[in-house]
Specification:
The structure is a homodimer of 325-residue chains. Chain A has two domains: 128 residues, ATPase, nucleotide binding domain (Nucleotidyltransferase, domain 5), CATH 3.30.420.40; 172 residues, ATPase, nucleotide binding domain (Nucleotidyltransferase, domain 5). In chain A, the strands form three sheets. A five-stranded mixed sheet of chain A has the order 3-2-1-4-8. Chain A has a five-stranded mixed sheet with strand order 11-10-9-12-13, with helices on both faces. In chain A, strands 5-6-7 form a three-stranded antiparallel sheet. Chain A has ten helices and 13 strands. In chain A, helix 7 packs across helix 9. In chain A, strand 1 and strand 2 form a beta hairpin. With 325 residues, chain A is an alpha/beta fold. At the A-B interface, strand 10 and helix 8 of A face strand 10 and helix 8 of B.
Chain lengths: 325, 325
């Protein structure tokens, strides 16, 4: 055991996303002492991603006045199928060459010289909000990450509910039987209407069909190749019809899906986060809440609905929580 | 404390339904030693219902060779809003004159001369299946009662998940955004497609519009005033087009709604019960399972799907479990 402010109490957290790697070092009070952000490699192998993660962690540690091997441990929030026991990540399809399984834990642990703990990216993000963010007043809650996909997580009676490992797929609750095709292959999922990837695919198809929209112009102006959350927000801001229509449809679908989850679980709170959630912020949290109202079971008390409190850092903070051991 | 087989170890259980009151006496091993079934009063006040419940319990006790005041306690599974602490039941709208709140616990306790414990009818039914029925092999499960309405209950990590008291409203998960009107007042709920009451209303409207169906003839032949589960089963059995169509729609909606719940919770098992569930049995459990397959999240392992194991007695057995104190 180190002293209360000793280096042995410092922990690292890495949020491994499809576009960026966010690394932080926190103290025992979960205060961020150093951070670094690297773009996620878009080609190469899982080993290249691991190397980039180690580099980001090294920088974050340096900014905190320490080195990775002096940390108590490093937690990682990762997409894909996590096996926390043996440190593997499989089928992380948004990451380069990562269709199979890779020993991310052992690899990173060797490079950093400290134990590494893996968790599901969405689940650690929810855990961070529950312990440190907007979820602190509640004992149970539903977290919804409205971003490229629509992820979710459940805190039930103070604990992350994982089911058989994959619980929280609120984005794949059905909002319309026989409805729009979802990236997951099913039909009518919430994510088919509200996921940024699905919305972009639909917008591009509509534009190709001759619908007018400034989405592509805004994207090119910003030098991007995808419709990021900022691009959707800018398009809606300037009243772009197609963007407004698709975002409105997303809000309706979120209201329906979240209300369905509430009717099943009857928890006191819903947190809205994710790239689009954070970007669109409070006014859209209110819009989602209004849509939910039509579908909440009349016998239930409506839940509180909040924006997440930790913004972009939630993932890395939640990862650092894993390293408490 | 009584001896292992002493009368002090006997408990009572009452399942208070909209059409019948089922009372049982069980021993410490939950073996049924006596039972009685009375029709639920269709007019009068909550006090009249309580009197009928006490009479049924008296008969069940007599059949078990004892008297109610010798029982360790009596559990009651009730519809409506239960306050277990003060023994009140409110808004039990299927029961006569029960729009307000009534002190069912104290009233019954005085008449029976033994403590009375109240629980939600669906929740105690699920608890019975979990402890004594088809749910025994599992630590977590979703129970679906396909009957007049579509009720549900969740066992998570060995415990009934109640949320803020009303969890498990799987029947009010949305299967079709903007869809059919539900008895709850919302649109597109699972129950709007699969609840017996909603199906009967739709069938009668279709028949009034000139659709051919033998449902009413079968009902009259059986001397009933409602389309009971037996009537639906008989109509489907003889290939009645309207009945087949409505039951098929119900199966699809159940598949969609249950899959949505699974994607959120990722539990290993689903139990199907309720009047229609028990009546249609295994072949329809398989049909529901097949419909679920189209909507389960591709990354998840499909759950086991079973018919409930305790049949009609589940509610009373679950009620008796409440009286363990």
């Amino acid at each position: 055991m180190g002293t209360a402010n000793g280096v042995a109490d410092l922990r690292g957290g890495i949020d491994l996303g499809g576009t960026k790697i966010e690394a932080i070092v926190v103290n025992a009070d979960n205060k961020v002492l150093g951070s670094a952000r690297h773009p996620t490699p878009i080609s190469g192998s899982p080993a290249d991603v691991a190397k980039e993660m180690a580099a980001a962690m090294g920088e974050a540690a340096k900014a905190a006045g320490t080195t990775p091997n002096a940390l108590k441990g490093v937690g990682v929030g990762s997409p894909g199928a996590i096996n926390a026991a043996n440190g593997t990540v499989a089928s992380a399809r948004n990451l380069p060459g990562w269709d199979g399984s890779f020993e991310l834990g052992p690899t990173l642990s060797e490079q950093l010289g400290t134990p590494v703990f893996l968790g599901n990216d969405v689940q650690v993000g929810i855990d961070a909000e529950f312990e440190l963010g907007a979820g602190r007043p509640y004992h149970s809650l539903i977290g919804v990450f409205w971003g490229t996909g629509v992820g979710g997580g459940l805190i039930l009676d103070g604990k992350l509910w994982k089911g058989r490992g994959g619980a929280g797929e609120i984005g794949h609750m059905v909002v319309e039987r026989g409805g729009r095709k979802c990236p997951c292959g099913n039909k009518g999922c919430l994510e088919a209407y509200a996921g940024r990837a699905a919305m972009e695919a639909r917008a591009r198809a509509k534009i190709k069909d001759g619908h007018k929209s400034d989405l592509i112009k805004i994207m090119e102006h910003k030098g991007r190749e995808r419709f990021t959350s900022a691009i959707w927000a800018a398009a809606v801001e300037q009243g772009d019809d197609l963007a407004v229509k698709l975002i409105d449809e997303a809000v309706v679908a979120l209201g329906v899906g979240i209300a369905s989850a509430m009717n099943l679980l009857d928890v006191p709170a819903v947190l809205i986060g994710g790239g689009l959630g954070v970007r669109f912020g409070e006014p859209y949290v209110e819009k989602i809440k209004a849509e939910m109202a039509d579908h909440l079971f009349p016998g239930h008390q409506p839940p509180d609905v909040h924006l997440v409190g930790l913004g972009d850092l939630g993932g890395a903070l939640g990862a650092a929580l894993l390293a408490r051991g």
